[in-house]
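Why run this: before we spend reagent on co-expression, it is cheaper to look at a predicted model of the complex and decide which construct boundaries make sense. The entries below are exactly what would go into the expression plan.
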Amino acid sequence: MSLGINGVKVTIDREKCERSGGCFAKRACPVRAISYKNGKILIDGSICLGCGKCQEVCPNKAISVEVK
Ligand code: SF4
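The model came back. Tokens follow.
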């Protein structure tokens, strides 16, 4: 998944993502940009700050955040 807003690029490795209801990344996001729909994690690029909290807390290292 790539996002163009503010030069932030968030990539989800769907092989690593457990799609857990108790997702650490979802809980850590300060702007609630992370949600799940039909079992897939979604990141709302219109509000994502590129802070990297989701990347820090995901135990499976399924998320990477780049800010250019
Ligand atoms: S980078 Fe920060 S604002 Fe963006 S989805 Fe991850 S935790 Fe939320």
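Helices lie at 24-28, 53-57. The chain has a mean pLDDT of 87. Bring this page to Monday's planning discussion.
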